[in-house]
Amino acid sequence: MNNALATGLLVLVVAMSISMLMIPWLVKWAPALGMIDNPDERKVHATPIPRAGGIGIVLGALIPLLIWLPWNDVVVSFFLGSVILLVFGVWDDIKELGHYVKFVGQFLAVLLVVYYGDLYVTNIPFLGNGALGEDAGRLFTVFAMVGMINAINHSDGLDGLAGGESLLSLGAIAYLAFQAQDLIVVFIAVATIGGVFGFLRFNSHPARVFMGDSGSQVLGFTLGFLAVYLTQVSNPALSPAVAALLLGLPVVDIISVFVQRIYGGMNWFRATSNHIHHRLLKLGFEHYQSVIVIYSVQAILVLLAVLLPYESDGLLIGIYLAMTVLVFGALVTAEKSGWRMKSPSPDSALMHLINGLEADSGLMVVDRAVIRLLLSLFVLSCAVFAVDVPRDLSIASALLFVALLARLVLGYRVWFLSLRLMIYVAMAFVAYLVEYYPPEIFASHDYWLSVFYVVTGLAVVMAVRYSRGEFFRVTPLDYLVVLIVLVLTLLSENGFTDVTLVALVVKLIVLFYGAEIVLKYMRSRWDMFTVSVLVSLALIGGRQFL
User: Across the chain, what does the average pLDDT equal?
Assistant: First the structure.
């Protein structure tokens, strides 16, 4: 499965890159298309925001899948369903469709999966394998998947919320599918993760773009599809109740909202402000604090799914219900008691300490210079000392060299060649090469690599925290990244996952954040760092012709 792992990482990076490349242009053209989310009394944003990010998520995920995914009827049904929901979602983001019209698109997409793809649930908690007959199983699957589409759609109420929740669920699903050696689920999950990561780069509070229905509906559809496929096809030995933990908080949130609407005599389908995130805001939590609280609960649920996938249905449902009671019990108690979250005083010693450094101070200038120098030396040394370079990586590096050279020479005249995109992909190439085909000098002196990553990581943390303005401030996305690293580390220490994979993920995070800092502050595109990356790509690509 090593080749599958490498391909999966490539799919993720390509999906993320496509998403990051497309979204700025979608933001630019959204007003002309009418894809603008205007504020109202139920929404938390105060200015109109483009809601075109979902197109970047979906196309970012689907394009690499067209290349690498094995094709069969169920995969075709997934693709067609995703496209249908994308079309209906874009239509809704432009015209504000009613919920009945949106249901048409949702049912069309799901019916394709259930009846053309022949994917449906037969194993349900407590009743055992094959408890549902074919007709009942198909009907149950249709309504369950439509419910999941709406759960994610309704959870998309704060910057980064729906994307982050989905990303955590997708990561757990990808992990369990990798254990079952099901590449269909792995590739779909990691491609979607890549698309979401690219989107979250622009969606962290204060968001520059929303995903809109075009993104949230496809995310919900993908999660529902993967949960069914994983538990019914990939590994039927899994407890069917594990799906509840994998899908997590959005499911119980929408059930809670419907119960409140029914109890209050309200329209079932009319949007209200009684979701978990709305209630946290009313309790005085700031925007990013509300998102982090929900991320944390979701992370606990999906981590339990990974750690306990074969336990009894009763235990898993019991855990899910206990977490539900804990979360909503805490909310109700806080609401009835009049408790409110208090923000730290701006005059406190802690806040003075946090804000004590400025982005343009001498220390921060030196810090960013260290990052630039270390990254430049790293990519050059990896390319110079590389001996065993895979043929496909060499060819890809040669092509990337040509594209990067054109971008550096011609500048914005080749606007379609994203400098950030090419730098990210190049850094991923180098990290993969060092991890899986280490040069002899690195293999015998690997402690130097450890020192490089530790020093660079610390410098990046400082640079991110004290970056100028709002462009690269610490956000819930940073918390999400740290959360993912901690979970992967925990799994590796307990033998649940490959330590090498965890190490590569951590290293990529350090390299990507470092590259972002250098690109943000460099004064010329012919920077020491960009030139070093260009030379490195030439050396790696040239191995194919030596």
Answer: 83
Q: How far apart are CA 320 and CA 155, in angstroms?
A: 18
Res 357: pLDDT: 46
Question: What pLDDT shows up at residue 321?
Answer: 94
Q: Which residues, at least 6 apart from 200, have a Cβ–Cβ distance to it below 8 Å?
A: 160, 163, 164, 167, 477, 480
Q: What pLDDT, on a 0 to 100 scale, did the predictor assign at position 1?
A: 52
Is the Cβ–Cβ distance between 188 and 39 less than 8 Å? no
**pLDDT at site 469:** 47
Do the beta carbons of residue 217 and residue 94 sit within 8 Å?
Answer: no
Token readout for 167 is: 């990303």
Q: Residue 198 burial (CB < 10 Å; 0-12/13-18/19+)?
A: buried
What pLDDT is stored for residue 470 in this prediction? Answer: 44
Residue 215 is predicted with a pLDDT of 92
pTM: 0.79
Q: What is the dihedral of CA 490, 495, 499, 502, to 10 degrees?
A: -40
Residue in 173, 164, 163, 186 with CA at minimum distance from that of residue 227? 173
Write phi, then psi, for 299 (nearest 5 degrees).
Answer: -65, -40
CA atoms within a 13 Å half-sphere pointing along the CA-CB vector of 79: 15
Peptide bond into 206 cis (omega under 30): yes
The answer to whether the CB of 19 falls within 8 A of the CB of 195 is yes
Query: What tokens appear for 283 in the block?
Result: 């309790």
Query: Can you list the residues of the chain whose pLDDT is less than 50?
Result: 349-357, 469-473
